[in-house]
Design brief:
The structure holds two protein chains of two kinds. Chain A is an alpha+beta fold. Chain A is built from five helices and twelve strands. Helices cover 20% and strands 42% of the residues of chain A. Chain B starts with a helix and ends in a 9-residue tail after the last helix. The chains are: A alpha+beta, B mainly alpha.
Chain lengths: 235, 75
């Protein structure tokens, strides 16, 4: 009996020590061309979208926190912004699971802002598919956004892998029972192309501090004010 | 009769030339600011862009059009 207890203890010890404590995921972001058959897509828009390159983003995480941002390119030609970054973000997303905290640090009009994001209400569907070696399940959500034409709804579809028990994902998305492997946010597609899990415990993730703390609504009104006062709209 | 036909042909040919010239002029007359504005507006509709995403897209398109010689401050 003592031997059985010892074996059980040893097995549990090995199991806990081999479970990954941190990880790194490389996502590739691209803009999908609209495929609404009822509406004819402007040929210029189509040409513009087809010429866009894919951009790599990195998600790093430990058991409680994650950071998501664009991978800096060393090529001079890649120093300028691309259209994909307008959608995938050109800032830093910070996720703190225990406190239900999601922040987005971004630069707008020469000023840094830290926007507190609201939690997404997911609906987990029965749809499943295999992405690489992982069986993934689909979760869907809707998000209200502020556009130039007024309020609009953004459709989100996330494929998560319960085999990777981390509640993180690209951008502000997470809180699903597994790591998000693929995410579609309207016409933006983010696909994991590299997943590295490690059992290092000391991966340090720091909360962004540089910037004015605002809610999404406050940020939207600042953006509105700046944009509608710019030359583009004053004409 | 011959004269009338010739006159009609002449009028038709010159009006076509004027139309072609006008459209060519329109295309080439469009400044980077106008081009980026038009493209960003179209993109915003097709991609359901938020205000700041559209603003960033406008900046990207404007920079793309201007190349490296950005000497006009627009924002």
């Amino acid at each position: 009996m003592k031997l059985l207890n010892l074996i059980t203890f040893l097995l549990l010890f090995i199991l806990f020590n081999t479970v990954a404590q941190s990880g790194e995921v490389i996502y590739q972001a691209e803009i999908l061309t609209p495929n609404n058959k009822n509406q004819k897509v402007n040929t210029e828009v189509l040409k513009l979208l087809k010429s866009q390159k894919k951009i790599d983003y990195k998600l790093i995480f430990n058991t409680n926190k994650s950071l998501f941002k664009k991978i800096k390119s060393l090529k001079i030609s890649d120093k300028k912004l691309h259209l994909v970054e307008a959608l995938a973000g050109n800032g830093l997303y910070y996720f703190q699971k225990n406190d239900n905290l999601v922040l987005f640090q971004t630069l707008f009009s020469d000023e840094y802002f830290i926007i507190k994001k609201t939690k997404i209400d997911w609906v987990i569907t029965q749809n499943s598919k295999k992405i690489g070696q992982y069986v993934c399940y689909e979760a869907r959500a809707k998000k209200e956004i502020e556009t130039r034409r007024g309020k609009s709804i953004r459709n989100i579809s996330a494929w998560f892998a319960p085999d990777i028990p981390y509640n993180f994902g690209p951008k502000e998305y997470g809180y699903l029972p597994g790591l998000i492997i693929e995410l579609k946010e309207d016409n933006l597609l983010l696909k994991a192309k590299e997943i590295n899990l490690s059992n290092k415990k000391n991966i340090v993730i720091r909360k962004p501090t540089k910037g004015i703390n605002v809610t999404q609504r406050e940020y939207d009104s600042i953006v509105k004010k700046v944009i509608f006062n710019s030359k583009r709209y004053r004409q | 009769m011959k004269k009338i036909v010739l006159c009609l042909v002449f009028v038709f040919a010159s009006s076509n030339t004027i139309i072609v010239n006008a459209s060519t002029l329109n295309m080439f007359d469009e400044s980077c600011f106008e081009k980026a504005d038009r493209q960003a507006t179209n993109l915003a509709i097709w991609l359901n862009l938020t205000l700041d995403e559209e603003h960033t897209a406008f900046g990207v398109l404007y920079d793309d059009c201007m190349g490296d010689n950005i000497d006009e401050f627009v924002f």
